[in-house]
UniProtKB/TrEMBL annotation:
SUPFAM superfamilies: Acetyl-CoA synthetase-like (SSF56801). This is AMP-dependent synthetase/ligase domain-containing protein. GO terms for biological process: fatty acid metabolic process. It comes from the Eukaryota. Keywords: Ligase.
Amino acid sequence: MLGFIRSSGLTRLAAPASKLALGARAASTVGGALDEAVERLPHKEALRSLKQDLRWSFKELNAIVDEVANGFHSLKFEPGNVLAVWLPNNAESVITQLAAAKAGVTLAVIDPKVSTAEELEYILHDSKASGLLFEPKIAGRNQTEIVQGLFPELATYRENFRLFRPKNFRNLHTVISTGFEPVEGIAQFHQVMVNAPEKHEVETVKQVVNEKTPLAVSYSKVNGQNPKKGEVLTHGDVLKRAAELTKTLSLSANDKILITGEETTLSFAPVAAIEASSMVVLPSAEYDHEAIQAAQKVEPCNIVGSGAANFKRV
């Protein structure tokens, strides 16, 4: 549902010699790692989402990530705040992970298998989320209706002078959808972009985000019980896990990683790809064997997998 930039003719020439050796990591944050990838090979293909008809170079991806990060700041997300994300295997998920990293925001990553208002309510309370970003439909269910049912205050958003303060969620102030159809009280992801922030604001965030800054915590569906909370991962943790995956797979700039979406936990593959200047390919928002086969014909990948680090060469 993303509608930012479509680039079908990316330059494949390597950038001039960079001060950073390919595969070397000096960054202590995920956002810094992306900046380094741009410095190494700005026009190298970074991400392709076949279902969404999107293809971005590292430079293009970074520009979008920066704008979304700035958008989070304009929506009053401060470093240390939590944004709950209820997204499938799509470009928005990758962008949000990287934008949150640059904004100093911590992600509460919701398993796409979570399907009830009660489960969502538990996660929002447990994580003390300041915001929710969701996909309108996953696995055929209408998630917009679930969100509207959980937040009746959305219906009176304009009557309340565009002020959203749900009485049952004291920390939460913003709800964002990846959909394009306007919904009362819900911001649209493709409009959450600010490309000219005040320089002092950007520098302030850069100074407070470091390797010890929390970046993500996952919530997994457990049938008949509340969702299970995973380990809180810092920027340093994510970079370490990504480096381990890079080493295990011997990733290089020549590799293409197909993320199938079969396992729905937070994946370290996008960050590993950034560190190795590899390309990430998303065949579909939800696991689909036929879409995977079609993707391999259109954009042949030599590494396939899903989940945190369940990937192998093929």
